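Q: Sequence in, structure out?
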Amino acid sequence: RWQFEENGFRIEDGIAGHDRHTVERALVTPMQVRIGNGEAIVDGRFAVSAGDAAPRLDPVTVWHAYGHGRPGTRIVFEAVAELPWSGRITVREIA
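A: Exactly. Output:
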């Protein structure tokens, strides 16, 4: 579920099931990304966070068309969770 707010949005997600499993959520961007204060800072303009996991940055190729891509970043939030599970990713504009 996506919830839009004045200066950003939240993505709420859930997984049914049982037992403990690794839960991985990811967003991909061609913009520059760095880690700061437990958040992924995208292009110096947006802070991306998840309450249950610290961000990890993985280099990827963002493909425009077959054989045509450019460098990008995969922002990953990974945690071991007990199912059923629910979580949230928050993207907010940095003032």
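Residues 15 and 85 are 5 Å apart (CA to CA).
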